[in-house]
Amino acid sequence: MSFLSVLLYIVHGTSLRRGYEMRKPPDDAIYLELFSRILVGRDGCPHQLLAALEQGINVAWEDVYDVVNPYGDRRGNAFESVWTFDLDKGLVFLTKNDQHSSASLGLARERLLTLDDFVPVDIVRQPLQADQDIPGLYWEPEFDYMPREISFLGRIIRDFGHTWRHVLCREINTTTFMKLAYAIIWISKMEFTLLERVGFEHISQGGPYVKVIDLPSWDTPDANLVPAGSSWFVLTQDIYKGLELVRGHAARQALHGRSTTESIKYAVLTLRQVVLCKASGKCLSWTRPEKLFHDSPATDAAISMILTISAIERKPLTINTLPVEIQDKILRQATVSLVASSKLGCELGIGSPFSWIERGVPIGIQERKTHRSERSPVESQLVFNGVGSGLSYKRDGSSQTPISSIQTLGSVSILLPSPGYIH
């Protein structure tokens, strides 16, 4: 089985290039000799050094927008080492699971380097941000009763944090932060598509949906104030900056004629924490910060804050008057998977809360893509604007569901079972 074993970065200005080996490489000393032979005799022009390294190191190079350190996660044990060529600082860094050292690129241009030339470097592995506390009298909000959304969307938000834990547990740049923060908003507002894997599929390349070096690849807007009905999400990695953004936005709303007696709700989302704010005129109050993505799963209060801001007002439908058991049957007949049924139920405000169990068998997140037969259970993948989120759900065990036709219902692409199949 192939595995990633060496990770390489080249840093120059705003350019960040990444490469990796798909097979076990030689040891560090032999790899270092290769690098040194590429660099010896070169002048100090960063552009020429970058081109020489890319041409001389036979790996697949790609542009990335952030650095991911694989260590600190058990999946990082597949990596022998991480080499970082910082052309601006004139240093090459060697990072391993238990050490971090550097050597001079200037010296490497004069002679072949050895591992003895590397000097230990103290590395401070900072979290996404330190926990922040806000002094003052806390506002104690009353959360709406949302059993459907909490059971379905709350689980997805927690699974998202687990799937992208290798990024969320480290310091990240603004681009990565915005991609992850918008993903949480899209999940909470149900602005995602479910792509259902059904029937036979023989995959040519397997492996995990999200590798320990992966970065989110979906595009996001740049705005750090995101509307959610009459409320707003405020995206920042610092709570105090978020409160200043809230004050400024509330003041502008007042200038544009919004009633000074009408309060506006905000959720300051740092990814590590969530704070709910309420602005009424010049008065601003806030809740105690709740942990979202941290060393432990998100708190119930953090999930409730996010879903409260995202909640939309729905007009009652005729179907709301039917017994909930009938609503469940209608949802189940309208979709091919229980995951899709629950999403549709949340969108319409009908049906029972999702138990994440089908026929007594749990529906769980799938970390790796696998081959499918016609009898494999439906696998529901969450997609953001055509790009996979890394989340995919499937019931354990086998299914007897024959599939014959495809239809689209809302934001769910579904394959309908052939006539005669009884749910």
Keyword list:
423 residues, globular, 22 strands, alpha+beta, 7-stranded mixed sheet, signal, 27% helix, disordered C terminus
Tell me what the structure shows.
It is a single chain. By secondary structure, the chain is α+β, with helices and mostly antiparallel strands. Helix content is 27%, strand content 26%. The strands form four sheets. It has a seven-stranded mixed β-sheet with strand order 3-2-1-4-5-6-7. Helix 4 crosses helix 8 and helix 9 packs across helix 10. The radius of gyration is 25 Å and the shape is globular. The two termini are 39 Å apart. Keywords: Signal.
Care to count the β-strands? Answer: 22
The biggest beta sheet reads: 7 strands, mixed
The figure for the number of domains is 3
Residue stretches low in confidence (pLDDT < 50, at least 5 long) are: 398-423
User: Which band does the percent of strand residues land in?
Assistant: 25-35%
- Helicity, as a percent range: 25-40%
How many helices does DSSP assign?
10
> What is the CA–CA distance across the termini?
39 Å
Counting helices, strands and paired strands, the structural category is: alpha+beta
- Strand arrangement within the widest β-sheet reads 3-2-1-4-5-6-7
Oligomer: single chain
How would you describe the shape? globular
Mean pLDDT: 88
* Rg calc: 25 Å
Topology:
Layout: E1 6-12, E2 15-20, H1 28-39, H2 46-56, E3 62-63, E4 81-86, E5 91-96, E6 99-104, H3 105-108, E7 119-120, H4 147-163, H5 165-168, H6 174-188, E8 193-197, E9 207-208, E10 225-228, E11 231-235, H7 239-255, E12 264-269, E13 273-280, E14 283-286, E15 290-291, H8 300-310, H9 324-334, H10 338-348, E16 357-358, E17 361-365, E18 368-369, E19 379-384, E20 387-395, E21 403-409, E22 412-417
Parallel strand pairs: 1-4, 8-22, 11-12
Antiparallel strand pairs: 1-2, 2-3, 4-5, 5-6, 6-7, 8-19, 9-18, 10-11, 12-13, 13-14, 13-15, 16-17, 17-20, 19-20, 21-22
Signal peptide: 1-16
Keywords: Signal
